[in-house]
Amino acid sequence: MSVSHVPSATRTLRVLRFLADHQTPVSLECIARSCDLPRSTAYHLLGTMVDEGFVVHFAAEHRFGLGLGAQEVGLGFAGQDLLVRVARTPLAMLVDRLGVSAYLAVGQGREIVVLHEERGTQMPPLLTRPTRLPARLCASGRAILAATPLERLRALYAAPAAFDDGQPRGPRDLAALEAVLERVRRQGFAVQDNEMRPGLAGVAAPVSGLPHGLPAAVALTHRREPTNVLSGRLGQEVQRLARALSTAVATQEAAV
Questions:
Q1: CA–CA distance, 235 with 22 (Å, rounded to integer)
Q2: From the CA atom positions of the chain, what is the Rg in Å?
Q3: H or E element in which residue 26 lies
Q4: What is the Cα–Cα distance from 230 to 39, expressed in whole angstroms?
């Protein structure tokens, strides 16, 4: 098929490729200039891609970045496949040993997407794929955000509307969120307690060193308890699991 027959598709792919080559959000003017598009055309293309989830609009700084939809496509034949492959057995073994549920997630902007879940036999169903959750609320999202450069974190949550995700619990402004993430960095794992689902709590740790800098975390979910003893013990478990997954992915990458 001639490219001239599908100019919109060509322009869309050109913009997506340009955004994929940039680690930080870029302005509309930069996108239009670099992709050789009229500003109005770039504006309408970006608007459509934002609506479809392929591009994220960082309204506070008037910039755009690659969205979850584009990441989901890319992950299908890159980091996701490898990460799920190496994580499936360790997650299942940990669930069998501890009786909790576990899941693997990647982050994009203010959301996380769940790639794989292993459910404990006595645990209620938690998730259905593909699942998107607010990163500020769930343990996996907090683990990923805690490892996010401060400048990007503040760009993501600069506007008050960034906290209008339909969930009244958890940190409701940037200062409160930064306080939560500072505790995550200090103790090495993230915690959520009764914030995602009544009666359940969870811990998570980031999985580092993944292909293309993929932001990911592994999380354990358990029934809520009156003390933090179980969360503390599971926090150590999830950190060990995250380190093991990082090592396994690096080993697989080296073998290719």
A1: 34
A2: 19
A3: strand 26-27
A4: 55
Q: How far apart are CA 168 and CA 35, in angstroms?
A: 40
pTM of the model: 0.72
The domains located in the chain, with CATH, are 3-66 (1.10.10.10), 73-255 (3.30.450.40)
pLDDT of residue 180: 96
**Cα(154)–Cα(148) distance, rounded to whole angstroms?**
10
Residue 60 has what pLDDT? 76
| Count of beta carbons in the 10 Å neighbourhood of residue 115 | 22
Report yes or no: 50 and 56 within 8 Å, Cβ to Cβ. yes
pLDDT the model gives residue 124: 66
Residues of the chain predicted below pLDDT 70: 1-6, 68, 71-80, 124-130, 226-229, 255-256
3 state DSSP class of 212: helix
Which pLDDT value is given to residue 236?
Answer: 94
User: Are 180 and 189 contacting, i.e. CB atoms less than 8 angstroms apart?
Assistant: no
Look at residue 126 in the predicted model and tell me its pLDDT.
Answer: 61
Element (H, E) at 154: helix 150-156
The answer for residues whose C-beta is within 8 angstroms of residue 244's C-beta and 6 or more apart is 90
Residue 13 and residue 251: Cα distance in Å, rounded?
A: 33
CA distances from 36 to 6, 9, 11, 40, 217 (A): 16, 14, 9, 12, 38
